[in-house]
Amino acid sequence: TRPIIDRLLEYGMMFEEKDRNGDRPIETAIKHKNWSSLEGLLRRGARLRSTTWQAARDSDGEAVLILLNKLLDDASILFRKKRLEEAMHR
User: Residue 1: pLDDT above 60?
Assistant: First the structure.
């Protein structure tokens, strides 16, 4: 079965929209230690902002590792595509 986050996004959930606490779904996933939702949001293109890194720092090491792995994967793809300038900024 597909992750619930994929289904929610298909039904129109906006992953850049903030809730009443000012959190986007990516920060909520981190705060609730829902790693499968976090990974699903990252796969779908959720942006990493300073609030994302703050939530990860306040959570635990697992969230930080997931975010760092995403950055490395993105940089690797850009590097292979010879988009070196973009890769250096990941």
Answer: no
Structural domain boundaries in the chain:
4-88
58 CB neighbour count, 10 Å cutoff: 11
Say if residues 26 and 15 touch (Cβ distance below 8 Å): yes
**Residue 87: exposed, middle, or buried by beta-carbon count in 10 A (0-12, 13-18, 19+)?**
middle
pLDDT bracket for residue 12 (50, 70, 90): confident
**Is residue 83 a contact partner of residue 55, using CB atoms and an 8 Å limit?**
no
C-alpha 64 chain-centroid distance? 10
Q: What is the DSSP letter of 49?
A: -
The answer to whether 66 touches 39, Cβ cutoff 8 Å, is yes
